[in-house]
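Workshop exercise sheet. Pairs work together: one partner reads the sequence aloud, the other fills in the structure field after running the prediction. Swap roles for the next sheet.
Pair: D.N. / O.F.
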Amino acid sequence: MTEPKKTSRRGLIKGAAVAAGALSAPMISKAETVSFRFQSTWPAKDIFHEYANDFAKKVNDMAGGRLKIEVLPSGAVVPAFQLLDAVNKGTLDGGHGVLAYHYGKSTALALWGSGPAFGMDPNMVLAWHQYGGGKQLLEEIYKGLNIDVVSFVYGPMPTQPLGWFKKPIAKVADIKGLKYRTVGLAVDIFTEMGAAVNPLPGGEIVPALDRGLIDAAEFNNASSDRVLGFPDVVKNCMLQSFHQSGEQFEILFNKSKYNALPQELKSIIDYAVQASSAEMSWKAIDRNSKDYEEMKKQGIKFYKTPDAILQAQLEVWDKVVAKKSAENPAFKKVMDSQRAFAARAGQWQNDYMVDFKMAYNRYFGKKKA
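Structure field:
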């Protein structure tokens, strides 16, 4: 008869630790598929909804069937501006939108996109978010609002136009009295400039323009504006503005659902966000430039926003943020953090980057919008 094999004290401790770890780990088997129901804040035909699907496809492909993200368009479950609450409560497992849409929760959230960002372009704002303290500040703001979400900020958007107008805007006084659509802190900027602002979600803008409920509007970019139908109802577009010159997208997850995932699936999500950020910026250049050309062929008139209006935006912005900083400590904290990062990164970029217009003009001639 063989004697029972003795188990050392060290072996018992190791076995207990393994068992405890197994109990605490997320109970998701290798064969199990976890399904996440996402909603974007964009109409199904918008390129922004396409960006949301691009992210989901990367996750689904890399997860090998273990995680599947299904993306629904704006309004499928909740209206666009209710996305954050829906993800927080678990009505949705996640979503795709912009931080400016949460402006009603805290004015500080709009600083991830609204305003001139101390001269930072959108990619620099993302650099601030990732390496300059922005990510930690965002987590702090959400925690203070009792919002349990995991947020990934990504996707640097090109500078947004001043917008679509029935008549070209030639001077600051032309903005006074206009019924104008925008969102986030841009609401405060244009209100201060004399406009009557209506913060409509993307899918409602063109119908409101068509019915005369608003006189002018901005949304985002050539591709979105074209597919949403702006050229069908308005024929003048003013290019360049500081109201949203450095915006990005936000991918949200319900924190409980995200935390239940094993680490390898969390890593897939993280790397899918980074890959999607790069792909989105490349796709935007290709698609926006094509749609810009197509709209010019349609007879849409594009005008550069006069410098006097851009300067007025900066002056109004300084007044708005001074007021918001006094009202909201979190707002001031974000502004101070952005300022410190922009002072350093902006100096580097402005000193190092060549003027690409010089080369463009040499080969294609100086062209007006």
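Discussion prompt: The chain has a mean pLDDT of 91. What would you look at next?
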